[in-house]
Structures are given as structure tokens and as C-alpha cells.
Design goal:
CATH class of the largest domain in chain B: Alpha Beta
CATH superfamily of chain A: NAD(P)-binding Rossmann-like Domain
Number of strands of chain A: 7
CATH topology of the largest domain in chain B: Aspartate Aminotransferase, domain 2
Distance between the termini of chain B: 42 Å
Largest interface: A-B, 27 and 14 residues
Helix content of chain B: 40-55%
Largest sheet of chain A: 7 strands, parallel
Radius of gyration of chain A: 18 Å
Bound molecules: nicotinamide-adenine-dinucleotide, pyridoxal-5'-phosphate
Strand order of the largest sheet of chain B: 4-10-9-8-7-5-6
Structural class of chain A: alpha/beta
Oligomer: heterodimer
Structural class of chain B: alpha/beta
CATH architecture of chain A: 3-Layer(aba) Sandwich
Strand order of the largest sheet of chain A: 3-2-1-4-5-6-7
Number of domains of chain A: 1
Largest sheet of chain B: 7 strands, mixed
């Protein structure tokens, strides 16, 4: 049996492509990976935002490059992935994080439009980035894919069925590819964040966040994006080579709490 | 604040948020802390839905008030139209407007006090406070400043403001609120089942209560007693129907001592007992009356005190000496409330709702009486579309359950589980469905209640709630 100590617990020198890096968990993940010594290909639809993230990383003396990328655009995905591999000489880690939240009742007028947007950004984009990245991942000695799903993929909140459907889909995609790509040593996992303080939850007033967290989570609080980034980092370590196909809740105990 | 749909994930529900910022009226506060509120989100017809989409029949018409049921377009329209035309104007200092005048005319035409003018307010409580103030003012104007005391009945409910709360005869509304005020007295509740002596007939009971009132007035001095206030059928005190002949007997005493009769029609008014007003059903001859609740079917807050012309003439004369008649609220006769109330009364007329209430009321009373033999039920009572079942530990001795067992509340909650909202007044379960109920709605209400009642029996037999 291999000694644990011989397995690397560092992403230093790896190249990681992360989507949705202008804000929230994506930004926190980009910064954490860079701080751990990875080359970070930071992407986001928000050009200024992603440049700001990269500027911060570089100011700390770490390596990152910004790409403007709308994950709803399949051609752009292929182009950016090729550019990233070209820039850094390969690709080891893909983190599908970019996301939007479009709620509304099933019989609402805008449902069809919201469904399309939601499924496109939260689910279709994931298979596209994965397909574009696959040729490069296959050449890596510890290829890792992490998709950011949600506890909304494990349970659901009313008025958010498209979101919940897409996030449940992400879990399914993760499992399917974990099995399919396992023989090549590629691990595919997803994280199910619970209530996290990011732009997505910014409109929920602080008092309401506290009421929610006290009533629903084991830890009685909202989480921070860095706490999700640590979960992602852990799944991307070379040493996490036997973990695949999991949907890991990073939710302060939201999904396990009964009363 | 309610969030846009895209921000509802990881946001607390309304019930989760409730306890932070709402102080609830007339509520068991520790129980609310423990159990959280039931959040009602929408209504249509006689039904309402909670925040989880569960449907309930509103068996208590909200708080005895949503006579026409929910979602009546004409009332929404009447409000919208009046808001667009004149959202506010008042009746102070010689101002007037059409909606208030038209509603006052309507009340003069159909109300229980002949030739009455209307003084508008926004709640039953303020109407009853107005009653007291008007009667005090009246007696001052007539040069009898001693004649100020008001008599009401234990278990009567007239509201919670200082005078109304003083007239209310229920302990939670007095205890620790420093009420009643010194001018208020209470007499026995005309509930034969609970207050009758062993072997006493209803007629004997009635005579005893009339004598009690007479003795009280004599003891206080008739020159100090101004008025007696009564709900035709007591509502919140447990739906108590006084015995036949009670009001005529009381009336005789009042007449003898020149004491006014205030008729609190806040629940009984507008068809509830199967007659246009409760006074008619119960044989009362009121001097003044308070109306609210069904006046607008609770679409908007509005109440009215109906005062006979003769009394108003006295106010006018007094004005020559005293100047301004200093009583009135900003929202007295609020044009939007008046317009909606007027439309509500028109709809009641168009739909012949009082006759309908009489008809289905009889059906309801017959249906409710089928529970009289249930092992938990001591008494079934009511009139028209107002009814109650009193739950007892021993039907033979009428022994009540210990209060802390909470049998009535348990039953109310089981009924809620089965989709009917009723109200536990102690161990009395009250019914007061919207006047628009049909016979099949009544079947459904009683069927749901029956299931809740049987579950309560099983719980009681298993020792539930007994510590
Ligand atoms: N915040 C939470 O509580 C929470 C909980 C569970 C899951 N999530 C998921 O976490 C992920 C990150 O969200 P966050 O909370 O950090 O939100 P966020 O809004 O702070 O960040 C999302 C980022 O995605 C970017 N983005 C949106 N659409 C894009 C597109 N078409 N192409 C490229 N980038 C795009 C945005 O510009 C933004 O920078 C999302 O997938 C979200 O669904 C969030
Ligand atoms: C008979 C009676 N009078 C007065 C009131 C007080 O009305 P409000 O709650 O509008 O002040 C009520 C309320 O239930 C009532 O039932």
C-alpha cells in the first residue's frame, strides 16, 4: 500500500480553470488556488470583475490570467479552454462555478425564458466546458473536475424549480462522468453549497440571513465563500485521488438538520 | 420586506421572520414562541391558503367578519375607484363627502336604531369607546353629570380600548392592564348551561338575572347608571344565546331606571343570526348600536355608532354653550372605507344574503346539533350562522376540563389539520362561517370538525394534556 505521505497534498504548479471568478465563491476559489501555488485561469462574463480578481492575485505575487467568458456560449468556451492550455502548457483542474439564480412560479409568464437561461448557464455549460477541457485533462497526471451544484440539488425551495432542476442535473452529470471517466483516472465531484454570503444572497437582509441560519443550519450561521473554496481545493488535491462521484454538502449542516 | 422570487433560496419564510418584528394581538405569547405562526397568504370564497399552499375553510370568517368571503372583485373595484377619485377627505369642521353620506343613509334605512345618524370609526373597539363618550357627553349636556356608570356582562366582549376593554367581561383583557376603569360594572352572563342553578328553569334564571341587574342599579343609585351594553348573542365569550325572554326582562329594568341600552352588533349585525340585525332576532329595543366587521365584510376597517336624532339634537344644543363637539378620528368616515362598505351592503342586498343566511343558518344549526350526543360535547348552542360546541369532562355533571389541559385548543388544532379554521374559546369551539356558505360547504365544515372532534376524544381518553 502506498504511504499516505507520498501523495501530494498540494496543487502547486497545477493549472486550474475556474468559471465565475468575478464574485463570490469563484473569486474566493481563484484566490485560494493561486495562494496554494496553482496557475489560475480566471474566467467570468464580467470582464472588469474578473480582471479585478486577477489584479488582486498578482498583487499578492501569485499567478493568474483573466479571460472574459460567457459560459452560455459554446464556441467561446472551446476558444478560451484552448487559450488557457496554450498559455500554461496544459490543464489539470476544471471548476465549473459560474451561476445565476432565476426564480419564479411554474405558471409564471417568464418561466420558459428563465428555464432556458438557468439550464443553459447552470447545466449545459458544464458539459461544454468539460468536453472542451477533456483532451487536456487526459494528459494531466492528476486530472480533477469539480462542479458547483447546490443543496437545492438535494432538496428544494418553492418558486425555484428551474434552479433546483439544473442543480440536480449537475449532480447527475457529475455521477455519470465520474463513472464514465473513472477508468482514465479523472475524478469528477461536485459541491453542494448551502447558504453562503455572496452576491447571489446579497439581497437577503442580514437579519433575515440570521433568522434563516439559526432555524435551518446546524452551525447556526451563513457560510463564507472561502469555506466553499476549501472544499473545492480539497477535492482537487492529487491526494484526493480515490474520491469521485460525490456530492459534498458544504452547508453548515443544513441538509442534515431535522429540528 | 418580501424578496423577489430570485432571492428566496436560503431566505427565511414569513413564519420564520415573524417573531423578530411582530407583537401579536390577543395571543398566547409563549405558545407562539414555541410553535410559530400560521401564515395565511391568500383567500377566495370561503377558503384561505397558507404559505405552504394548504387550503382551509374559514369557519370563523376570519374574526367573525368576512361575511361575503374572499376575493370579491366588486369590492376591490369599489376601493380602487374611490382611491382614484378621492383617496381621502374628512368630516371634521363642516367637511363632508358623498361616500360617507351615502353609507350613513343606508344605515339609517336598514340599521337597528330608528332614525339614527352614523358616527364612523375604524374598529368595534373605537365604536364602543365612542358609545361611552357620547353617552357621558349626553348626560353632561342634560345636566346629570352623575349618570355615568356603564353595566356590561361577564364574558361579554366589546373590544380592548380603555372603555371597550372595561366593558369586556373576560379576565385576560382586565388582568394586569389595570382595567376595568372605575365607572364600569359587570353582571352575570346569561348562560343557563353554565350559570343556571341546579333545577333552575330558564324562566327562573332570566328572572334572577333581571333582579340582579335591578339590585345593582339600585345599589349604585339609578342617578349614577347611564347605560347597559349587550351583544345580542355573546360572541367571543363563548357564543352564548340568552334565554327566551331575557332581553324583554332586562329592558323593563332599564326603562324603570332610565338606563340606555347599547346594542353591540359588531358580530351579530348584517345577517349573522338570520335577521338583518341581532336585536331583531333576540327581541332587543336598543337606544344606540355599534356596527363593524361585516359592515365592510372586513375588506377595509370601518365601524359606525348609530345614534338617534334626539340624542344628536342634545349635542347640538350643548354646542351652543360648549363650542366644538370634540370627538372624532382622522379616519372617521374615510371615503375609501365608506365606499367599500356601501358596496358590501349593496351586494348583500342584491344577493339577498340575510335570507340566505337564515336558510343555511337553520341547516347549520340542525347539523351542529348532531354533535350533541358526542361523548365530549356538553352543550351545542347558536343561532343563524353563529354556533358552538362546549367540550366537557363529564356530560352528566357538566364538569369542565382543567384549563391547563387545553382540550379546546387541541380540538381547534386537529380541525386545522383537517382543513377547517375554527376558534377555541376556552373549551368551547366556535363556528362563524362567511354568510355566503352553501349547505354543502356546511356539510364539509361539520365533517372536518367531526374528524377533529373524534381525534380529540381519542387524545382525551389516552390522557392527552394531563400532566
Ligand atoms: N451563494 C449561495 O448561497 C450558493 C449556494 C449554493 C450554490 N451556489 C452556486 O455557487 C456558484 C457561485 O455563485 P456565488 O454564490 O458565488 O454567486 P455570485 O453571484 O457571487 O457569483 C457568480 C459569478 O458567476 C458569474 N456569471 C454569471 N453568469 C455567467 C455566465 N453566463 N458566464 C460566466 N460567468 C457568469 C457572475 O458574473 C458572478 O461573478 C453558482 O453556481 C451558484 O449557483 C451559491
Ligand atoms: C361584539 C364585539 N364588539 C366589539 C369588538 C371589537 O372590535 P375590534 O376588534 O374591531 O376593535 C368585537 C371584536 O371581536 C366584538 O366581537
Amino acid at each position: 500500500m502506498t504511504e499516505l505521505t507520498t501523495l501530494s497534498r498540494s496543487v502547486a504548479g497545477k493549472t486550474a480553470l475556474i468559471t465565475g471568478c468575478a464574485s463570490g465563491m469563484g473569486r474566493a476559489t481563484a484566490k485560494l488556488f493561486a495562494a496554494e501555488g496553482a496557475n489560475v485561469a480566471a474566467t467570468d462574463i464580467n470582464a472588469d470583475g474578473v480582471r479585478a480578481t486577477v489584479a488582486e492575485i498578482r498583487a499578492a505575487g501569485r499567478e493568474a490570467t483573466a479571460w472574459t467568458l460567457d459560459v452560455g456560449d459554446g464556441d467561446a468556451i472551446r476558444r478560451v479552454v484552448d487559450e488557457v492550455a496554450d498559455r500554461y502548457g496544459g490543464l489539470d483542474i476544471l471548476v465549473n462555478n459560474a451561476g445565476i439564480s432565476r426564480g419564479g412560479p411554474i405558471d409564471g409568464d417568464e418561466y420558459e425564458v428563465r428555464w432556458q437561461e438557468t439550464v443553459n448557464v447552470l447545466l449545459t455549460a458544464h458539459q461544454r466546458t468539460i468536453r472542451a477541457a477533456l483532451p487536456y485533462l487526459r494528459k494531466s497526471d492528476s486530472p480533477r473536475i469539480v462542479n458547483i451544484a447546490s443543496t437545492e440539488g438535494l432538496g428544494a425551495t418553492a418558486m425555484n424549480s428551474a434552479y433546483s432542476a439544473a442543480k440536480t442535473g449537475v449532480i447527475g452529470l457529475t455521477r455519470g462522468l465520474a463513472v464514465e471517466l473513472g477508468k482514465e483516472g479523472i475524478t469528477v465531484n461536485c459541491i453542494c453549497p448551502g447558504p453562503i454570503r455572496t452576491a447571489m444572497t446579497e439581497r437577503i437582509p442580514e437579519e433575515h440571513k440570521q433568522i434563516y441560519a439559526r432555524r435551518r443550519t446546524a452551525l447556526r450561521r451563513y457560510g463564507d465563500p472561502e469555506e466553499v473554496a476549501h472544499g473545492t481545493l480539497h477535492l482537487c488535491l492529487p491526494a484526493s485521488s480515490f474520491i469521485t462521484g460525490v456530492a459534498l454538502p458544504v452547508d453548515g449542516g443544513l441538509t442534515v438538520r431535522r429540528a | 420586506m418580501s424578496l423577489p422570487a430570485e432571492a428566496t433560496v436560503f431566505a427565511p419564510s414569513t413564519s420564520d421572520r415573524d417573531h423578530l418584528s411582530v407583537l401579536h394581538p390577543t395571543t398566547d405569547l409563549p405558545a407562539l414562541r414555541r410553535d410559530g405562526p400560521l401564515v395565511i397568504e391568500r383567500g377566495q370564497g370561503i377558503r384561505v391558503w397558507d404559505e405552504d399552499g394548504r387550503e382551509y375553510i374559514e369557519g370563523l370568517a376570519g374574526l367573525w367578519c368576512t361575511a361575503l368571503g374572499y376575493g370579491v372583485e366588486e369590492l376591490a373595484e369599489a376601493a380602487a375607484e374611490q382611491i382614484r377619485k378621492l383617496s381621502f377627505s374628512h368630516l371634521f369642521a363642516g367637511r363632508s363627502h358623498e361616500p360617507a353620506v351615502a353609507l350613513a343613509e343606508k344605515l339609517r334605512e336598514i340599521g337597528p336604531v330608528p332614525n339614527a345618524k352614523a358616527f364612523f370609526g375604524t374598529s368595534g373597539s373605537d365604536a364602543n369607546d365612542t358609545q361611552v363618550k357620547l353617552i357621558w357627553y349626553y348626560n353632561n349636556a342634560l345636566g346629570r353629570p352623575e349618570k355615568k356608570k356603564i353595566i356590561s356582562r361577564r364574558r361579554g366582549y366589546h373590544g380592548v380600548s380603555l372603555a371597550a376593554g372595561s366593558m369586556t367581561g373576560l379576565p385576560p383583557f382586565h388582568k394586569s392592564f389595570d382595567l376595568p376603569l372605575p365607572q364600569f360594572r359587570h353582571v352575570t352572563c346569561p348562560h343557563h348551561y353554565r350559570e343556571g342553578e341546579p333545577g333552575e328553569t330558564e324562566a327562573e334564571f332570566t328572572a334572577r338575572l333581571a333582579a340582579e341587574l335591578d339590585e345593582l342599579i339600585r345599589a349604585e343609585g339609578p342617578e349614577t347608571v347611564a347605560a347597559f351594553i349587550a351583544e345580542p348573542v355573546l360572541g367571543a365569550g363563548g357564543v352564548v344565546v340568552p334565554p327566551e325572554g331575557y332581553y324583554p326582562a332586562i329592558q323593563k329594568v332599564l326603562d324603570e331606571h332610565d338606563v340606555l341600552l347599547i346594542d353591540d352588533e359588531v358580530i351579530c349585525g348584517f345577517g349573522r343570526l338570520g335577521t338583518p340585525f341581532g336585536a331583531e332576532a333576540m327581541g332587543m329595543r336598543p337606544d344606540t348600536a355599534s356596527v363593524a366587521k361585516a359592515l365592510s365584510s372586513a375588506y377595509v376597517p370601518i365601524s359606525a355608532v348609530l345614534v338617534p336624532d334626539g340624542m344628536v339634537d342634545v349635542f347640538v344644543e350643548a354646542g351652543e354653550r360648549w363650542g366644538v363637539f370634540g370627538h372624532g378620528f382622522t379616519y372617521t368616515g374615510h371615503p375609501v372605507c365608506a365606499a367599500v362598505a356601501l358596496k358590501a351592503l349593496e351586494l348583500m342586498e342584491e344577493r339577498d344574503l340575510f335570507a340566505h343566511a337564515d336558510r343555511v343558518g337553520r341547516y347549520f344549526q340542525a347539523g351542529l346539533r348532531r354533535f350533541a350526543d358526542h361523548p365530549l360535547v356538553g352543550e351545542v348552542r347558536g343561532r343563524g350562522l353563529l354556533g358552538a360546541c362546549e367540550l366537557v369532562a363529564d356530560r352528566g355533571t357538566r364538569e369542565a376540563f382543567p384549563v391547563q389541559r387545553g382540550v379546546g385548543t387541541y380540538c381547534m388544532n386537529r380541525c386545522l389539520d383537517h382543513g377547517v379554521i375554527l376558534r377555541a374559546l376556552g373549551d368551547t369551539v366556535a363556528f362563524c362561517p362567511p354568510l355566503i356558505v352553501t349547505e354543502s360547504d356546511i356539510d364539509e365544515i361539520l365533517e372536518r370538525f367531526g374528524r377533529g372532534l373524534d381525534e380529540t376524544l381519542a387524545w382525551v381518553e389516552a390522557g392527552g394534556g394531563a400532566s
